[in-house]
Amino acid sequence: MRTACFLVTLFAFSVMPGVSHRSHRLSGSVKSHWCKQLLHNLHRNHHLLRHPHKCDHVFQRSRLRQEDTPPRIVEHPSDLIVSKGEPATLNCKAEGRPTPTVEWYKDGERVETDRDNPRSQRMLLPSGSLFFLRIVHGRRSKPDEGSYVCVARNYLGEAVSHNASLEVA
Length: 169
Known about the structure:
It comes from Oryzias melastigma (Marine medaka). GO terms for molecular function: cell-cell adhesion mediator activity. One of its GO terms (cellular component) is plasma membrane. InterPro entries: Ig-like_dom, Ig-like_dom_sf, Ig-like_fold, Ig_sub, Ig_sub2. This protein is an alpha+beta fold. It has a domain at 73-168: Sandwich (Immunoglobulin-like), CATH 2.60.40. The protein is 30% helix and 30% strand. The chain contains three helices and eleven strands. Strands 2, 5, 6, 9, 10 and 11 form a six-stranded mixed β-sheet that branches. Strands 3-8-7 form a three-stranded antiparallel β-sheet, with no helix packed on it. The chain has a two-stranded antiparallel ribbon with strand order 1-4. A hairpin with a 5-residue loop joins strand 7 (122-124) and strand 8. 15% of the residues are buried.
């Protein structure tokens, strides 16, 4: 066992990523446990190579957990004409696995929502839609009027919706 462990350790140092050449400084019991675990994994892999029909079962189980998909927009926002002071909703719905996060951009700038600032009158709904408690519109400042897009992201990528304009009547 000791010779096999030594050879496996040398093998691990030479070809396995993430295995430090400094692991020889570990205590004997830790080294022994690590070595037994490595031998167990190598034995299991060798067993699967000798019995390829068992590989299919292992592969199918791991593949089921890895059916992740990039985001895609399934409901795009539509143009809106809204009266000053009234509520409004720009719809956006995205799908993907893992569930994508949704952010909104107005005229190319990220929109601040209640998730960024609890006092914001713009709320990001669980569906991904952007809800305005009341449309703000003044003579000098028109902070809500503009062109909006929603962007859905997960680790596999991002999806951008069609543009939607919000105009104040």
